[in-house]
Specification:
The complex is a heterodimer. Chain A is mainly alpha-helical. Chain A has 17 helices and no strands. The longest helix of chain A is centred in the N-terminal third of the chain and has 43 residues, at 3-45. Chain B contains 16 helices and 13 strands. In chain B, the strands form 5 sheets. Chain B has a 5-stranded parallel beta sheet. In chain B, strands 3-4 form a two-stranded antiparallel ribbon. Chain B has a two-stranded antiparallel sheet with strand order 6-7. Chain B is globular. Classes of the chains: A mainly alpha, B alpha/beta.
Chain lengths: 515, 336
């Protein structure tokens, strides 16, 4: 290849590489725009559909990923042909098609008498071409779409996020979140007061956070995912605390259960509280009447030891045993101290059990809320985890209680209807009223319509009126094509010179106006 | 090929001759630079020109001056309604030899020339106009069964007056199509008019010198045909022609509405051939899209037949062509 041809090819190849990258970037930008706009549309759809609005950074990341992938794919799969690149350089650098023609002629230069001159001419002109100016790298023109879409998402996230149109599934989900927030708050209030009375430290620490969660669910405009995430985060905290409590309970419990899971009924709080009450009573009696009470106390201590044989920690049993031995020796003071120690141990255990119970309740509440929000609809009434254990639809609890229990997704659920008026306590409304009747078919008595069959009389009259006069406003182009063709043929058949056809037409138009 | 290359005139010589012709014509003609260039392009492309303009704009002067500068034979025919075909191509006349025997001898008409000015060509009857058809297309004349070749180069430059239409016969489409260009002669500018006064009312009258001969012109025509046109340039010419056809694949909007028949295949030939000459005149050996765009109006305006609606609304072929030029996709430019 001669130097002139080499120069031409080199320039064309460089231009092709630049154009390939430029086009690839443009395609990538289109893809990024598509992703960003689609996510923006999906975000707008959250007004009606319970979807999670896309965070701006997620949209940015997705768009960037699409940009990179499509740019790479386009660069690899759709390189710009050298000839096409040469045409672009011709236009951009004002080469008047020298480069493209030279590239095209070069393979058949031997057959073209002017080919050497053409190649030399093209090489001379391309030598001064500044490719960076002719085919510059630039940001694709459609970048404002991407920026607008991301800006839209940022603004949406800041000001509109969480809004839902009334009557839409998104609105129902939003209401479900509020309801669950309200339930969690109420549960947290009761849990807090109970924890205060029980002096359960973990529960007391977590109850305000639970309450804050409930308030947040009501106050903030959250979508389903966010709400579930918050609940899940709270659930993890509760779980951690519960594990701590369980671990301490295991440590306090007897060695035989250390390896296994903690049975639910291991520490029965009622039994424990009973033992605590007994020990307090015995301790008081020992302090008030040490001589008279020792025999009785000794006997009661044996009962307490037998009652709590399965539940008491080893240290408590040892202290009780020690107290018994001291009483047998007549050391009432030492026995009292040992009983006091055992009492404190049991009270600590009681607090742990209160914690475990409260935390378990909190966990249940959170799970129920998660389920309700996940299903998009609330549970009936204002039921919380505390009162969810109560039997539903029990007859005799008051007006309206005969309404069938609401079970989400249950088939054959009777429509809300005339259950309120049935006598309370006298069985279920459904059984008394029979099968529920759809309201629109309430009247089933057929009515006969009077009339005669067949069509009635048909009236027709010719309406005459004055036409509106004026010049025709329909352009000839709008006339039916067949009419135009006929007019054309008529004008040709009349051998009217072309120059006069306009005059003839205007003449006839004027005639039409005169008429 | 080397032999062909050696036998060809160089592009530099081509330009030099063109410059000399231009210079000589401009000594006589005032203004009308574009017109002179376009007539030269048509001439060097081996085509014929139809000049349209009001009387007194220098149409005849241009042709006469061109013939003078090229050292070519020149004839002028004033077309009138009573002009007969034989008045153009010639006729057999009865002759008598010294022995008293009579025989027919063909008397050549004015068409046997190299530069023919057909003045007011639309005043002759179609029959007479058609007498030029064979001469223009085949560069030959047939009379009484005998074909006579015309001397090359053969160049017809016809004129017609656009305002005095009474008693005229518009050229038939077949004949119009044989003209490479239809040029419109514009009225001179005020400055040109002053210059015309100075040149034509003084004692000394300017005259043109001979700067090229018939052989040189033939070489120039041959060289022009060797100029390269890239495939995308040809494709553009085809797209442009298609855009003038209302029933074509991609008609321009105005063509679809106002045109009955678009440009013929001769139109695309004319475009490319004229583009080659223009490229050489511009110092290039390749046809560019700019050449085609510059020559589209003169090369195609007489090949488009408007429909009744177009004529009634006063649309002219130039408007349709400009629309076609705007609408024809120059893909490369769009990509750039």
């Amino acid at each position: 290849m001669r130097p002139a041809e080499e120069a031409i090819h080199r320039l064309a190849r460089r231009a092709a590489r630049r154009l390939t990258l430029r086009h690839a970037l443009a395609h990538g930008m289109l893809a990024a725009n598509g992703v960003a706009v689609a996510l923006a549309v999906a975000t707008v759809a959250t007004l009606g559909v319970p979807l999670t609005p896309v965070a701006p950074w997620v949209a940015l990341l997705a768009s960037a990923t699409a940009w990179v992938l499509i740019t790479l794919a386009s660069a690899v799969l759709r390189p710009t042909p050298i000839l096409a690149a040469a045409r672009v350089v011709d236009v951009r650098a004002g080469l008047l098609d020298r480069l493209a023609t030279a590239l095209e002629v070069q393979p058949r230069a031997a057959a073209s008498p002017l080919a050497p001159r053409l190649l030399a001419d093209a090489a001379a002109h391309t030598a001064s071409v500044d490719l960076t100016a002719a085919v510059p790298y630039r940001v694709p023109r459609s970048w404002p779409v991407l920026v607008s879409a991301i800006a839209f998402l940022v603004l949406w996230s800041a000001f509109v996020r969480g809004l839902a149109l009334p009557g839409t599934p998104a609105h129902r989900t939003r209401e479900a979140i509020r309801q669950e927030g309200s339930r969690i708050e109420r549960f947290a209030q009761s849990l807090q007061s109970r924890a205060r009375s029980d002096r359960a430290p973990q529960t007391r620490r977590l109850a305000p956070q639970l309450r804050e969660l409930g308030q947040g669910l009501q106050r903030d405009r959250l979508d389903r995912t966010e709400a579930l995430a918050r609940i899940a985060e709270m659930g993890r905290q509760v779980e951690r605390s519960r594990r701590e409590v369980d671990a301490r309970l295991r440590a306090e419990s007897r060695p035989r259960v250390q390896d296994g899971s903690l049975p639910q009924d291991l520490f029965r709080r009622q039994a424990l509280q009973q033992q605590i009450r007994q020990l307090r009573e015995l301790t008081t009696r020992l302090q008030q009447q040490p001589e008279r009470a020792s025999e009785d106390v000794l006997q009661r201590l044996g009962e307490v030891g037998r009652d709590g044989d399965g539940d008491q920690p080893a240290r408590v049993r040892e202290q009780l045993q020690q107290a018994r031995e001291q009483l047998q020796r007549g050391d009432t003071r030492g026995a009292g101290e040992a009983l006091g120690d055992a009492l404190r141990e049991l009270e600590g255990l009681d607090q742990l059990l209160a914690d475990a119970e409260g935390l378990r309740g909190a966990q249940q509440q959170l799970e129920q809320s998660q389920r309700a929000i996940g299903e998009g609809g609330g549970r009936p009434g204002g039921e919380t985890a505390e009162d969810s254990g109560a039997p539903r639809g029990t007859p005799g609890e008051g007006p309206g209680e005969n309404r069938p229990a609401y079970e989400p997704g249950a088939e054959g659920r009777a429509p809300e209807g005339p259950y309120e008026g049935t006598t309370p306590g006298q069985g279920r409304g459904g059984a008394k009223l029979g099968a529920p009747t759809p309201r629109l078919e309430a009247r089933r008595t057929p009515e006969r319509l009077r009339g005669t069959q067949g069509e009635g009389p048909v009236g027709a009259a010719e309406v005459l009126g004055a036409g509106k006069s004026g010049a025709p406003r329909t352009p000839s182009a709008a006339i039916a094509p067949s009419i135009v063709t006929q007019a054309d043929r008529a004008m040709e058949a009349s051998r009217t010179p072309a120059r006069y056809r306009g005059l003839v037409r205007r003449y006839f138009e004027r005639l039409a106006r005169l008429r | 090929m080397d032999e062909l290359e050696r036998s060809l005139m160089t592009p530099e010589e081509f330009r030099a001759v063109v410059e000399r012709i231009r210079g000589e014509v401009r000594r006589v003609m005032v203004g009308q630079e574009g017109l002179i260039d376009q007539v030269l392009i048509a001439f060097l492309a081996g085509g014929h020109v139809l000049l349209e303009g009001v009387p007194g704009l220098g149409k005849t002067l241009l042709v006469k001056t061109l013939a003078q500068t090229l050292d070519l034979t020149f004839a002028r025919i004033q077309f009138t309604p009573d002009l007969m075909p034989a008045d153009i191509i010639g006729t057999n006349v009865v002759m008598q030899d010294p022995d008293g025997r009579r025989y027919f001898e063909f008397q050549r008409g004015p068409v046997f020339t190299q530069v023919l000015l057909a003045d007011e060509v639309n005043r002759a009857t179609p029959k007479t106009q058609s007498a030029l058809l064979e001469a223009m297309q085949e560069h030959a004349v047939t009379a009484a069964g005998t074909t006579y070749r015309l001397e090359e180069p053969f160049f017809v430059l016809a004129t017609q007056n656009p305002i005095e239409m009474e008693g005229t016969y518009p050229l038939p489409e077949a004949q119009l199509d044989r003209f490479l260009f239809k040029l419109k002669v514009e009225f001179p500018t005020a400055r040109d008019l002053v210059e015309i006064i100075d040149r034509t009312t003084a004692v000394a009258q300017p005259s043109a010198a001979v700067v090229a001969g018939g052989d040189q012109i033939r070489e120039m025509i041959r060289l022009a045909r060797a100029v390269e046109a890239a495939s995308h340039v040809k494709a553009y010419a085809v797209r442009l022609i298609q855009a003038t056809h209302p029933t074509g694949p991609h008609p321009a909007p105005l063509a679809a509405r106002y045109v009955r028949y678009g440009a013929s295949p001769r139109g695309v030939q004319a475009l490319i051939l004229a583009g080659k000459v223009r490229a050489l005149m511009e110092g290039r050996v390749n046809v560019s899209l700019a050449d085609l765009k510059a020559l589209a109006l003169p090369a195609l305006r007489h090949r488009i037949i408007l429909n009744f609606e177009g004529e009634a609304e006063g649309v002219d072929a130039d408007t349709v062509l400009r629309n076609a030029l705007e609408e024809t996709a120059d893909l490369e430019a769009a990509q750039a």
